[in-house]
Amino acid sequence: MSRLPEKTSANPGSDGVAEKLLGIVRQTAAELHPQSAEGLRVTLQSVFDRDLGMGSLARVELWSRIEQEFGVRLPEDLFATADTPADLLPALRMHGRAGTARPLAAADAPQTSTPGRLTPDAALTLIEVLEWHLRTQPEHTHVRLLGESDEAEDISYLALHQGALAVAAGLQRRGLRAGQSVALMLPTGRDFLYGFIGILLAGGVPVPIYPPLRLSQIEDHLRRQAGILRNAEAVAMITVAEAKLLARLLKPQVPSLTEIASVAELTGEGGGCVTPLRQPEDLAFLQYTSGSTGQPKGVMVSHANLLANLRAMGKAVRIDSEDVFVSWLPMYHDMGLIGAWLGSLYYAYPLVLMSPLAFLARPARWLWAIDRYRGTLSAAPNFAYELCLSKLADGDLEGLDLSRWRLAFNGAEPVSPDTLQRFAERFARYGLAPAALAPVYGLAEATLGVAFPPLGRGPLIDRVQREPFQVSGKALPAEPGAANALRFVASGRPLPGHQLRIVDGSGVELPERCEGHLHFKGPSTTRGYFHNPEETRRVLHGDWMDSLDLAYIAGDEVYLTGRAKDLIIRAGRNIYPYDVEAAVGNLPGLRRGCVAVFGCRDPATGTERLVVLAESYEQDVAARQRVQQEINRIVVDLTGVPPDDIVLAPPHSVLKTSSGKIRRAASRELYERGEVGLQRRAVWRQLLRLGLLAGRGQFGRWWRASSAALYAVYIWLLFWSMTPLTWLAVAALPRLSWCRAFTRAAARLFVRLAGVPFSVEGLGHLPGNAVSVLAANHASYLDGIILCAALPAEFGFVAKRELAGQWIAGLFLRKIGAHFVERFDPQRSAEDAEALAGAIAQGQSLLFFPEGTLSRAPGLQEFQMGAFVLAARAGVPLLPVAIRGTRMVLRDGQWFPHHGAIGVSVGAPLLAEGPGWLEAIKLRDAVRAALLAQLDETEGPISG
């Protein structure tokens, strides 16, 4: 594999002034962010706070170093106005070090995500990504296609562009206009790659749809695609030559469809292509659910969504161009299209691509390709891992080496804990590391990825008590060895820059270990469904999108528990049961309207089984066999896969509501208990029992919701009753010590009346009357009240200056001795820091929230350097204070408090090794580590 030469991120000029300046900035930023120093990118246009995370005190340190290294005294007003290193260059040149310095244009500046690995971070569209590679590495191998006999065909970036340009020219000659949709019904291979990029180069919007498995079924297959083509308003279809004649039958059903052609026909017409300018918010493609037989829902994926998701996933798994992705995933599936191919297009790792049929026919080919091509990445649904376990004998794997496979993604359908365990155990002998198995979560509405597990952690299985979970939705941990426990697989944590939440049916966010609807948001979240505003409104809730999945969160990990929609995922395809039920119900010998189709997890394999339960009066064995054969034929025609089980049951076996709707979940439970058709229990008794269970669950949900609402109302009544009285008392008291003592007493009374289980540990670490600095994590608006209740009334809070201008809050904070600091004006912020140093010198102990703000998402946020610089310079001890539970009680952005336990732990005092900047950074890192040891939260970004 070719390797690129390492390049700098800017060409600062021949005089060395800019180069020397960038070196100082880079060194300071690297000290501030040691965990990301290797991949740190600093240019003349890097913004100090936004791009380099330099707060006011970090800029003071940077300023001092620049003046010392250059031997100059920079204007004071420049400290407040300079946002980038480029802003400092004129002042430096004025002091006798003239020269020219010009940064590269943003589109041309090489950018790195890992050392020496160039990525097109400035690209705004997928086309710009390809153009970037054409400028930097046109001959680099992009895709290696494996044929029937494993012969390889390499496609470079240049070859991909040339082939796609030919397709684009053909489309434009046939009248394609910018923004029009083009269906792409092609198998995995070169034509798909050329066709997809060709549509984009021509200004169109690709619409991948899955091709027929067998040409003998192509007419029925195309008929089922008519709904997708109509919804997408496709004006053209690119398909295989064999399908062209029958595809013309779609034209009367799809008014917009005017052109049907193969890649060979389009590329053979010659001519040039004019690529229209595309914007980041323009559609990159429409992603329809593969195998869908319900109302078509085309997810609108923009270029901005796509690139944001690729960058977030790459950061989460530390993608490198030295990686090799081996894939058999179909291109019409988002995991194959985006995760495998477009990820390769962005990060320049080689993609070894084989046909899905090659894997299904011989699963060993997938594993041997990983061995042969030194694959480090690959992905598949759970059934593929199960297929390797059940279909491959030891003789098929002799000599296999999977030691380079660092991430085996498992997603797109429910992940079985049994499959993970058995796959890890069996293939460990072939070099597969247990930590390589990575269950992930994603969906088309989020472009692709939503949550990934931490690197090197391996699968995490949560065992919960069955009864509380099924009755109340509470995922209470089960005791080790407990029988009948439920097991759920962790799908990881939200991708960088993205968030998850669990809400109840009313949209109220739930605390940890409570099952509810999984919502997500972030730059990868799409705008909804193409030409389907009703469905879009159903899933979009402001910035949040409903995944239509059920889940709970524990320890920052998300655990998928089921689907809120009646969707069956079978062999990677989505099946909507009501279409199958309607078709099967028309068969002679079956009771019309008495058919239930549902998914059922196979306990032996962990894969989802497709079950058809149908009522029939037929008693003759031969007749029943014919009916079952007809059911099998219809299901295969509609879904592309056969049912795993067909049950012909006596009348009244399929459970319904009082209005006649099929109760699929209840019928599935009846099937799983093996009670379908049993005469020992009458149907009315079954209905009664299921009704009682449903009523019990509904009553439990109603009781919990009502109790939670009443508690929330009580808390707010308590708060607004006590707050005015506390404010008036503090405003009237003449002494600071009295104000602080009264505030502490009021806070403790509030916590007691709120019924919150409250604990405080480590008060013995406080140094008595000696001066000290406290640094606490900030998770909720409750934190100030909690610290007032937990700590002695001797600490002065450090608050943001915006509060000083508020009459009510400002007066109260001043009366209890709070100190205010500026967050946005660097010069004023530095002055406030000096005032805080003076307060410490006068014997005032201070309490900081070094995160400076709070977030609804778990995890420590970036730390500002103020508390650590002051403690280091003053030589006073700094004590970490961990606040647990407040985020679950009252999360940012929510005004619905939950009942929960809160704890405060004061850590052992820490002393800086000296008064310098580097010693302050070490102190910050030590405090951060101490807080993480006390909190059930993840590491977050570190900033200054």
Task: Please explain how this structure is put together.
- By secondary structure, this protein is α/β, with parallel strands linked by helices.
- Among the domains are: 17-117, Non-ribosomal Peptide Synthetase Peptidyl Carrier Protein, Chain A (Orthogonal Bundle); 461-563, Luciferase, Domain 3 (Luciferase, domain 3, Roll); 570-678, GMP Synthetase, Chain A, domain 3 (2-Layer Sandwich), CATH 3.30.300.30; 713-934, Glycerol-3-phosphate (1)-acyltransferase, CATH 3.40.1130.
- 37% of the residues lie in helices and 19% in strands.
- The protein has a 7-stranded mixed sheet, sandwiched between helices. Strands 21, 22, 23, 24 and 25 form a 5-stranded antiparallel sheet that branches. A 4-stranded mixed sheet has the order 4-3-12-11, sandwiched between helices.
- Strand 13, helix 15 (382-391) and strand 14 form a beta-alpha-beta unit.
- The two termini are 39 Å apart.
Radius of gyration: 31 Å
- Main beta sheet: 7 strands, mixed
- Tally of helical runs: 29
- Averaging pLDDT over every residue, what do you get? 85
Question: Can you identify the CATH class of the domain at 713-934?
Answer: Alpha Beta
CATH topology assignment of the domain at 713-934:
Glycerol-3-phosphate (1)-acyltransferase
- Residue runs with pLDDT of under 50 for 5 or more positions: 1-14, 97-116, 290-294
- Percent in strands: 15-25%
Strand tally is: 37
Helicity level: 25-40%
Largest sheet: spatial strand order = 31-37-36-32-35-33-34
Structural class of the secondary elements? alpha/beta
Globally, the shape reads globular
CATH architecture of the domain at 713-934: 3-Layer(aba) Sandwich
